[in-house]
């Protein structure tokens, strides 16, 4: 009986991990359905992000689909930068680590900025390169 009691915490931990895994799976499936209408998209535990033509949409992932969605026309954006721990970085030589990583979009009139959270610096840098190039192409047209 003593051996059975020793395995009980392990069983409880397995059940908790299985439940957490199921919740994360549901979030990813909800994201997949949401992301089908976008040309480019990203998912991580902090935010979902999608780009369709000149519109950028982002929000918070949940099991029932993204919530708190915000949309923005890329034609109104003038600046794009990556901030690590609230400090702008050189995207040509990004740091290896940071606690908070955000992609910051600044409007043309400098009156508003939008922060999109990321969990990985390389992914934020990749989106920064992409958005800078895309906004540059919009300015040429």
Automatic annotation (TrEMBL):
Name this protein carries in UniProt: Transmembrane protein
Keywords: Membrane, Transmembrane, Transmembrane helix
Organism: Candidatus Synechococcus calcipolaris G9
Record-annotated membrane-spanning stretches: 6-22
